[in-house]
Design goal:
The chain is of the alpha/beta class and 409 residues long. The protein is 45% helix and 13% strand. Strand 3, helix 4 and strand 4 form a beta-alpha-beta unit. The termini are far apart.
Length: 409
């Protein structure tokens, strides 16, 4: 088996492949270009996209060149896969802002200084905006049958639930197939990788290229990743685990990995770090807490750098020991003017963004889950005065795992 495909399987990335034997032979004989598409519906990707990013890293590791397609065009429509309602349509400025932000994030994960493997960034709006509707229907639309399109899971699910599916969304699969065709023509791209929910769209692309250009190309999908708890990867009780530090601090990112379920640790070490699979197999029976710290350090170093990872680990140790207010904790600033307004503990928690709902904060206070400077707060009407600030800052904690330092501005 080809080395790239073997590692792809060993790390748990493999779900389905079109013509696997032929793809293996191609990868053995030449260096190829493979692409993954990312919609630009938010200014950051979250951990749910991390598996796809790791696939791009793996392509580079084996000497192949990744193409990152940023869906400036298809984001204007919306992929119905996995959705039960029409996506909110963003304006052009929002989409362009998101594209720039996402590209910046992806460059943190990918090697950009090797001319043979550096990523190619493309925006499908550059060709989709030029489409002539009549020509597109004649040249591309003729290769698709409504009968087959209605069998795809993304369409069937919506129709079975009697939920509306606009013609705009229905057309998405044709446009994604057309993206593959364009990349094959422009960049000689011969592989598309995507999540298992993209299988139908990817197969459409391989078949379109075969009919249109008589060329053999390939599709490869990854499994849907869920946590051992059954929750969807990337979503937590406190919100999405963003890859942009403006939306989620390096400390909170480190904490997410440090606190994963014991049952997920070995799987995630294989999927989301660069550690050799053989090395992971050798250490898999070590102390689970040490393995979790290893996971947190490796994943945080990859995104935020080794220095940020070390600081996050140190902050966690300081909080756990209770000897310090946590000099390395993520922090927010509060003005003395705010304190003069007699803000209470509930407002302080909302201000910290550790919680969004006042009713949830009240519930946490009743459960003795909120602390100021490691002291349990039981009075939901407690007014925050400067007496709580030691050396101009205080530590706010929710449970054992969520902490933030609040400083005087």
């Amino acid at each position: 088996m080809n080395k790239f495909l073997k590692e792809f399987k060993d790390r748990g990335y493999f779900y389905q492949c079109t013509s696997e034997k032929e793809l293996s032979e191609l990868l053995n004989n030449e260096k190829i270009k493979g692409y993954i598409g990312f919609d630009c519906t938010a200014e950051s990707l979250h951990v749910g996209s991390l598996l796809q990013i790791m696939c791009l890293r793996l392509l580079q590791k084996h000497g192949h060149r990744p193409i990152v397609l940023l869906g400036g065009g298809t984001t204007r429509i919306g992929d119905p896969s996995g959705k039960d309602k029409t996506r909110k349509i963003l304006n052009e400025k929002e989409i362009e802002r998101n594209i720039k932000s996402i590209e910046k994030i992806l460059k943190k994960f990918l090697i950009t200084d090797n001319s043979k493997t550096k990523p190619i960034f493309v925006n499908n709006y550059s060709w989709l905006k030029k489409l002539n509707y009549i020509s597109f229907l004649r040249d591309i639309g003729k290769h698709f049958t409504i009968n087959k399109m209605l069998t795809f899971e993304s369409v069937k699910t919506r129709l079975d639930r009697e939920q509306s599916l606009s013609y705009m969304e229905f057309s998405y699969m044709i446009l994604q197939a057309y993206d593959f065709l364009e990349l094959n023509k422009k960049e000689n791209c011969s592989l598309q990788i995507g999540g298992s929910d993209q299988w139908g769209n990817i197969v459409n692309g391989t078949e379109l290229i075969k009919r249109h250009s008589s060329k053999q190309v390939y599709g490869l999908t990854t499994p849907l990743i869920t946590l051992a708890s059954g929750a969807k990867m990337g979503k937590t009780e406190t919100g999405a685990i963003w890859l942009d530090e403006k939306l989620l601090s390096a400390y909170d990112y480190w904490q997410f990995w440090r606190n994963v379920d014991d049952r997920d640790v070995i799987k995630f070490l294989k999927m989301f770090t660069d550690l050799d699979v053989e090395e992971i197999n050798k250490i898999m029976n070590k102390d689970i807490n040490q393995l979790k710290i290893k996971l947190a350090n490796e994943t945080t170093s990859m995104l935020h750098g080794e220095k940020a990872s070390r600081k996050a680990e140190q902050a966690a140790k300081e909080v756990f020991s209770g000897k310090s207010l946590g000099s390395n904790l993520p922090s927010i600033k509060i003005s003395k003017q705010n304190l003069n307004k007699n803000i209470d503990i509930i407002e302080l928690v909302i201000l910290s963004k550790l919680e969004k709902s006042k009713s949830e904060v009240r519930r946490l206070i009743k459960g003795n889950a909120i602390k100021l400077n490691d002291e349990i707060i039981s009075d939901e009407k407690l007014i925050i005065s400067d007496k709580f600030f030691q050396k101009n800052y205080l530590k706010l904690s929710i449970g054992k795992k969520r902490h933030i330092k609040i400083e005087f501005n």
